[in-house]
Amino acid sequence: MPFKRAVIVPGNGAGNIEHCNWYGWAKKRISEIPEVLCTLKNMPDPVTARESIWLPFMEKDLKCDEETVIIGHSSGASAAMRYAETHKVFAIILVGAYTSDLGDENERESGYFSRPWEWEKIRTNVKHILQFGSTDDPFLPWEEQQEVADGLKTDLYKYSDRGHFQNTAFPELIDVIKKLKTNS
């Protein structure tokens, strides 16, 4: 079954996400791909990004399902991984993914890091898992990004000059989505 929808799940604290980082730019480019609808909505609880609020929103409001590619950035990557532990989705594209609360109280309160990651369940529920990471990310140690890649056996796109992927454009993302669409 091919995918029909892409959903961008942003990092926490993003405010109006249409105008933050590459989100609005990517939504416009993805929407130009034939037969793909791209959804980008401001998330509830945008600062703490609580799992108990974001995952139901992803299911009920963003309609993430087996025909969906979830593009998760930072906290959105954590949400995408936890969502995929219990839901079948076509693909997850993780941008700036990590595995711990990084010693940060706000990250701890989100709830994503209160238990071990269920890598095998995620791999079972998701047809395609891709990951973008950068060794110069000022927020995330490379070891945690590599832990995600190893646990999920991702197609890893490793950079040394992209920081936390907060640019206004992200052409490599569009390329992998086009490739997923062509091969689906």
Automatic annotation (TrEMBL):
Pfam families: Ser_hydrolase. One of its GO terms (molecular function) is hydrolase activity. Coiled coil: none annotated. InterPro entries: AB_hydrolase_fold, RBBP9/YdeN. SUPFAM superfamilies: alpha/beta-Hydrolases (SSF53474). PANTHER family: SERINE HYDROLASE RBBP9 (PTHR15394). This is Hydrolase RBBP9.
